[in-house]
C-alpha cells in the first residue's frame, strides 16, 4: 500500500479537490523517505555500499584504481576487513579464495650446502625465500545491472588484484613468482 492511500484512510470524509492533491504529494514524500531508509540500511555493509563506499575505502586504506568497478572496490574492502594478519601459507590460500581463486603455494628453500643436492633449484639471488603461486583464471567479473555503473567494463579478471594482495601481505624477505596454469 502506498502512503497516499494510507493517508486517505486517516480522514473520515472524502474531502476531494486540493486535499487529494496534498495527500498525493505528502504520500509521495513518505514513499521516498521509506525507500531512502532501505538504501541507508544497505550502506552500513561494505558489500552493498555505494554512497559511502569512499568512506569504507578510507577506513581500510584501499585506494581504488582509475578503472575499478564498484564490485571490485567493494570486494577489496571486504577482503581487507577479513584480514587477520597471519604468515602461514594457509592464510594466503584463504585470502585468494575470498577473491575466487584456488591457489597452490610451493615454498622453495634457498640452496644450502649440506642440505641441498645436485639438481636442486638455486632460487632467487635477492631473496632467501621464494614462493611459487600456481593459480587458474577464476570467473571474471561481469557487468550486472544494479551492481555495475555506466562506463564500467563489461567483464574483467581479478588476477592482478589477487597478485597485488599477495605481494602486499607476503613476508618481507619472500620473492613471489606467479604462474598461471
Describe the structure.
- The chain has 181 residues and is an alpha+beta fold.
- The chain has two domains: 3-43, no CATH class; 78-180, no CATH class.
- The chain has six helices and five strands.
- The strands form two sheets. Strands 1-2-5 form a three-stranded mixed sheet, covered by helices on one side. A two-stranded antiparallel ribbon has the order 3-4.
- It is rod-shaped, with a radius of gyration of 27 Å.
- The N and C termini lie far apart (55 Å).
Q: How do the helices and strands follow one another from N- to C-terminus?
A: HHHHHEEEEHE
* N/C terminus separation: 55 Å
The largest sheet has its strands arranged as: 1-2-5
Parts with pLDDT < 50 across at least 5 consecutive residues: none
Into which percentage range does the β-strand content fall? 5-15%
Number of DSSP helical runs: 6
How many domains, in number, for the residues?
2
